[in-house]
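User: Fold this; tokens only.

Assistant: Input:
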Amino acid sequence: MSAIKISKPALHGSWLVLIGVMIISPDALLVRLVEAPNTTTAFWRLALLTATLFAVAVVQGLRRRQSLGRAILPTRDELFAGVFYGGTSVCFILSIRNTDAANTLVIIAATPLLAGLIGVFVFKRAQAMRTWVASIVVFGALATIVGAGFGGANTLGDVLALGTAICMACYFNVVGTRNHIDAIRAMMIGSLMATLIIAPAADPRLVSGFDMLWLVLLGCLILPLSFVFITAGAKKIPAAEAGLIMLNEAIFGSLLVWLVIDEAPSQTTLVCGVIVIVTLATHSYLALRESRRRLRRAAV
């Protein structure tokens, strides 16, 4: 019987994903620090991200010795994925601006389960019983968070957070089932479409103080850099392990907002957030353990 050890590529992949998560953790905080109106904030964040991804796509094309058109023009599948990525970006920004950051991050943490359920009903993939049980628990907790603020100031933001999670889950499913998709081009066209849609409602001149600094950090550094690390790491480790590591964003992102701008999560969000994170962590751990058992049996 062969001994099963954690491979160096797997360990390396875990660290890459964790680094990516730590880089993106200030995202919610920086969006909240921007004082410009919601639509203007969304416009600049998306426009700067689009410009950065365009530059990355061009450099990537040069390395592959592609023409400019081939390097930047998306395929039909990349355009399809881009629609969901654009929806994710817009919903996230507007959600953060219209509800507690902790609400947004906890609701978005349910994305892996939503992606699994969409895979069942749309792509006809089988799901383990643990996924169904975890889904019921998590959705019950999310319904409690949304229901607690229903009719109040957080209603719109909570609903938009759910929209963010749904769009993100759809994006992961599209990219995951079409291996030929170039994620850089998909993200670029998605952020471009979202920029053009939101531009008429924005006034790019309404940025002042440190607003542009926070927006440049987001669009030109934090978002693209975190994506590079997370994508590179996720290719080296099981999806369950990547999902487990990604839960750290909900924890650290909420903690940063709490510490810097003193926005403490409500008791309902705190309790339900713990339930969501513990449930998702347990689900990912069980999936990872099952995956390693299969590897052991295959190695016998």
